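Why run this: before we spend reagent on co-expression, it is cheaper to look at a predicted model of the complex and decide which construct boundaries make sense. The entries below are exactly what would go into the expression plan.
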Amino acid sequence: MRTRLKIAVASSKGGTGKTTVATSLALALADAGSVEFLDCDVEEPNAHLFLKPTIERREAVELPVPQVDEAKCTLCGRCAEVCQFKAIAVLKDTVLPFPELCHGCTGCWVLCPEQAISPAGREIGAVESGRAGRIGFHHGWLRIGEAMSPPLIRAVKRQARQADFTVLDAPPGTSCPVVESVKDADVVVLVTEPTPFGLNDLELAADMVAALDRPAAVVINRAGIGNGRVSDFCRSRGLPLLLEVPFDRRIAEAYSRGEPLVAAFPEYLPKFAELCRSLQEMARR
Amino acid sequence: MKIAITTSGKDLDAPVDPRFGRAKSFVIYDTESDQWSVLDNAQNLNAAQGAGIQAATAVVKAGAEAVLTGNCGPKAFRALSAGRVKVYAGVSGTVREAVEKFLSGTLRPAAQASVGEHAGMGL
Amino acid sequence: MKQLVVISGKGGTGKTTIVGSFAALAERPVLADCDVDAADLHLLLAPAVRHTEDFTGPLRPVFDKRLCTGCGLCVEQCAFGALAPAGTAEGGCATRHVPHLDSIACEGCALCSFVCPVQAITMRRVVPGRWFVSDTRFGPLVHAKLGVAQENSGKLVTLVRNRATEIAEETGAPWLLIDGSPGIGCPVIASLAGADAVLIVTEPTLSGKSDLGRVARLAAHFGIPTLVCVNKWDINEALACETEAESEAGGCRVVGRIPYDDAVPRSIVQGVPLVEHDDGPAARAVRALWRQIANGCNTLVG
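The model came back. Tokens follow.
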């Protein structure tokens, strides 16, 4: 029996039900083993509204940015030359860092011929950890105005303890924040809706997991509102369709109040347990 | 002294470009000799970030001591101030007219950036 | 020319649906789909592509196998863990160990190329996407497709935005309507720059309210007049009212609310803007929303 399964829940299209599925999975698994929940949507975290964790610790997360020692600096301009992000400029007799543009590549301080630059910290956000019943919970809050989320997502992932099941709730999209959330998972659940928008974005998500070489399965949420083309697509791409949650206004209403699906509708608990068993099978292969 | 005027064209009759970081070009005008040249700014037009800084560096390197433009964002303003370049914002009309206004002493240097960050990206 | 950017904070609140209808209602608009990661607006507008170009993006290192000595200095120096030592020799030569590049972790900083003692590394621009200018029944549409698993630094969003702005200026279009992306990161920041007004489409849920707060603060940070509309308001009327009250208190202007209507997914399946599909409750609400924005544009957007 395989232990330590990492499940990422992603979707490309926003609002399909990633958080609904991820929180329901975590709750359905809480009795089957130890569970760690990572909300990797650090731009707009929502899972805490459903799992209602008690936060036990909060830590600011910093990125290293250049700090110039003017006594040592000879204004040679090498730092500005090597910086690909325009985060440091040399103008007449001043070296001006622009910390908000800095990616923390360390190039300027490594290459400064006078060793005049050293790293200082710049806060990009904070991570919080706690427990929701028996579930270990971690999420992050990106500072508003901060452009890049992957470094904070990495910080959230670092908080997690080893557990039988790790559930990662990814942000929407297919680019760097999602890649960071999904790339170490054993298996990815793609949540979609049966509409042309859902289909268009599912194709992109399927391409992304293929590029990352992760096995993936699909959950259709709000089944019944559109057409059957998403199911057809899953068949043609060999993506197992493991669960369909029909559209039901009562589910939407419970969601609006912050009630997890399996809490408001306990008949879904065994369905999510079954979903996890299928995912374990997939990861084993 | 040399002054830099933002422009969407390539000569003195061209209009002043209301943006600094993403201006199409700069006319570098020498007020003593009346000679002028054009400094192309094409590399910055689609930059997602750092356009103002790069433009400021180029203008400082070209030896300008003043910039005449429509607007100037905060990072560019910081960079130009560090390079001891005075910024004259709210300038419009043709490049020639801008130079004349500067020489007649009717322009006043800006104390701070005239627009928020990235404002020139949509203009 | 007025630029309206439609964002949401939370995904799936109805941005694209609404922008699709605004395209049909606005006078001679230019459209831009700045959700380059998961572009959907074209599915409602039946575009005919008339121009397309590669989007050249970030730099990636290229290794010259003949020069590389396998010293591992680049691997050591990479701050992003994007280089790993090669496991086996390349080309049968047992002494060469060219590092393996993780192109997704790489941020294109070029430090490896600077530290390499034998200049075995050159940086090359990669093409992570493509952008398009298309004609639609309502006006020109500028859109893009970012390759999957790519860096979404906002550069492609900026390119789409700039091109759409140029077209609007050239044609004297009164409106530039921009479909934004969810979240508050670089793609959203890039789409907001230069906007005359921002419309945040939200939903009456705890998630929607939490996310609205954050994205509204982002818009305020840029000093952009912010309008708010609660979509599917009747799913939770109490939360809808609370959201509207808090938005107004926070300096936003509530410009309308749209009821849940299953005509919306039906119109998406048909591939047409909602306001062309029917005249049901949601369609009427979207028309009223546009009237509020367009007619009030001197006060709301000026």
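The first helix of chain C runs from residue 15 to 25. The longest strand of chain C covers residues 48-55. Bring this page to Monday's planning discussion.
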